[in-house]
Amino acid sequence: MLHWDDLRLFLAVARAGRLTSAGQALGVNHTTVARRLTALEEALGARLFDRTSRGVAMTAAGALLLDHAERAEREFEAAAAALSGRAEAIAGEVRLATPEAFGTYIVAPNIADFHARYPDLLLELMPESRAVSLANREADIAITVDRPPRGKLVVRKLCDYQLGLYASADYLARHPPIRSAQDVAAQPFVAYIDQMIDMRGLRYLSEVAGEARPVFRSSSIVAQQKAVASGVGLGLLHRFSADSEPGLVRILPNEVEITRSYWLVLRPEHQKSPRTRAVIAFIDDLLARYRALL
Known about the structure:
The protein has helices spanning 4-16, 19-26, 30-44, 60-83, 100-107, 111-117, 169-174, 205-208, 221-230, 239-242, 274-290; strands at residues 49-52, 55-58, 92-99, 121-128, 141-144, 154-168, 188-191, 213-217, 234-238, 248-251, 257-266. By secondary structure, it is α/β, with parallel strands linked by helices. Among the domains are: 4-87, Arc Repressor Mutant, subunit A, CATH 1.10.10.10; 160-260, D-Maltodextrin-Binding Protein, domain 2. The longest helix has 24 residues, at 60-83.
């Protein structure tokens, strides 16, 4: 039988990615976390995490439990607030800064669900390819592709995501077959404007084609995806958006794949704000829903 303390420990490990960091969050040492996690896995009859030298990696069973555990966490907090007389309507404004693809393809299409859940809470979305300054109050919450350096910020890894190599079906019909990574460098590419990349995590073209010949550059990943779909050349695109774009075809899926991470960042004083917590709960729900597409 699952207990809340078991789910709390599981959530801490899932969010921290390391037993040591999870132990720090829970106020126990990492050996206690490891022992309790093993006991939980034995009770469930399923491995929730694979242990690696760099931390832990969630298994399919762990991903399944995560959705239920986060839902239970929110229900528990809501019940505690109601019973203590602290329940109140969540209202006001929250500004969320995200990488463009995350905001455009994950947050914005689901904003009606957010409004139905929190009708008095206004979400302001900033989907951009530049880094924002929380210290300068440009946003209340930021999702970034670069883990912030150590400092006075609350940081949590949200998830990994993948980019693949894509071209339009029309482009592929007009050009010789691309059978290996060696064939990629000679192709025309759609890419970012180098001088306008603010986030290190967006510099990935050189990982695939160091001598790539750009035929179109844009500071917008949405514009890049539309340009690739037009047939002008190849592009490195987010799987969660490109896989559903009509006419786009993924190339060399077993050879070309880039993994990046999304990080949740906020100032410590916002951590307990009901408005902030509501937006974070919404983001966690979205990622649980989109996990298989990332």
